[in-house]
């Protein structure tokens, strides 16, 4: 991550992040899950630029609730959702982009 996270608090529907420089961001858990960057949710491209991904299906309410999170090196966060999904790594760049759309 470009910046270090000073603290994270998770509430029922939002994730609250305080960055080392004092900036504060509040992210909707629903928005975080819907933009999951894993190959199943967001797809991935092969060498021929063909897009592949998992079958889109309705998500249960538990898909928008966090069980836990962990830091992945210095560049991202990994969330474990209550429906068991845990494949996406949310990079600092992704979180910065969500910051702009959250305003």
What does this structure look like?
This protein has 103 residues and is α+β, with helices and mostly antiparallel strands. It has a single domain (5-102), classed as NE0471 N-terminal domain-like. 20% of the residues lie in helices and 36% in strands. It has 3 helices and 8 strands. The chain has helices at 29-34, 39-42, 92-102, and strands at 5-10, 14-19, 24-28, 44-45, 51-52, 66-72, 76-81, 89-91. A hairpin with a 3-residue loop joins strand 1 (5-10) and strand 2 (14-19).
Q: Architecture, CATH level 2?
A: 2-Layer Sandwich
Strand order of the largest sheet: 1-2-3
What's the number of domains?
A: 1
Mean pLDDT: 87
**H-E string:** EEEHHEEEEEH
Oligomer classification: single chain
The percentage of residues in β strands lies in 35-45%
**CATH level 1 name:** Alpha Beta
Q: What would the keywords be for this entry?
A:
103 residues; alpha+beta; three-stranded antiparallel β-sheet; globular
């Amino acid at each position: 991550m470009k910046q270090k996270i000073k603290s994270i608090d998770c509430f029922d529907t939002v994730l609250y992040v305080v960055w080392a420089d004092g900036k504060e961001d509040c992210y909707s858990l629903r928005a975080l899950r819907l933009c999951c960057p894993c190959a199943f949710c967001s797809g991935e491209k092969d060498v021929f630029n063909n897009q592949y991904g998992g079958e889109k299906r309705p998500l249960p309410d538990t898909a928008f609730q966090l069980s836990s999170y962990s830091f992945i090196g210095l560049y991202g966060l990994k969330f474990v959702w209550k429906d068991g999904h845990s494949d996406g790594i949310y990079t600092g760049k992704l979180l910065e982009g969500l910051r702009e759309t959250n305003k």
